[in-house]
Amino acid sequence: MFIFHQAYLTQSKGWDISLFTALFPIHALGIIVGAIGAGAIIDRVGAWRVLPYALAPLGLGLLALALSNSIWVISIFFITFGLSAGMIAPIAGALWVEIYGTANLGKLRALAIATIVFASAAGPGFSGILIDNNFNLDQQAFVYALFCFVVVAAHFMTRSRFKKRAEIISDEAGL
Fold first, then answer.
1. Which own/partner pairs from 89-95 qualify as long-range (CB within 8 Å, at least 24 positions apart)?
2. What DSSP line would sit under 97-162, residue for residue?
3. Any idea which fold 6-173 has?
4. Whole-angstrom distance, CA of residue 99 vs CA of residue 162
């Protein structure tokens, strides 16, 4: 949603919007690095072990966005947002199989994609409503960063359940 509201974001930060848009390739680079790196690690240790690290870069980028108006924050945000976005794709592809097996994979993926599409559509509108009610993007970025860190912490606290489930599914599948 920060990209969707780029005019408001750049104006509120005092940034040139043309510089902001010129740095989009950094986001693409982050996606590529995140996807390739996560895919390689997933093949060695499993998606459930990589999962908690997927939101950490985004949380750091959002925190930087919330706390600074420096022009360098654009690059930091784009690379961290890209890393997280890139990591999510291979994690999502492998995690469902590790946790639930393949019997209902189509249904699980369909539900996940539908949820992602809904959230992607609702997010910018929700953010706009917050902006209209004096909850600016810096404040939103801070809350979203905290949410990322809470989700990472929650995963580590429930990690043993993921491990047990993944081991059961792997044993049943003969992996």
1. 89/35, 89/38, 90/35, 90/38, 90/39, 90/42, 90/47, 91/38, 91/42, 91/47, 91/50, 91/51, 91/54, 93/47, 94/42, 94/46, 94/47, 95/47, 95/48, 95/51
2. HHHH-STTHHHHHHHHHHHHHHHHHHHHHHHHHHHHTT--HHHHHHHHHHHHHHHHHHHHHHHHHH
3. Growth Hormone; Chain: A; (1.20.1250)
4. 7
pLDDT tens digits for the chain (175 residues)?
A: 778 899 999 999 999 999 999 999 999 999 999 999 999 999 998 888 899 899 999 999 999 999 999 999 999 999 999 999 999 999 988 988 887 878 888 998 899 889 989 998 999 899 999 999 999 999 999 999 999 999 999 988 887 776 776 666 666 655 5
Distance from C-alpha of 113 to C-alpha of 72, rounded to nearest angstrom: 33
Structure tokens at 29: 């680079």
| CA gap 60, 148 in Å, rounded | 9
Q: What is the residue whose two structure tokens read 């969707």?
A: 4
Which residues, other chains included, contact 128 with Cβ-Cβ below 8 Å and sequence gap of 6+? 5
Closest CA to 20 of 33, 34, 3, 37: 3
| Tokens encoding 128 | 């706009």
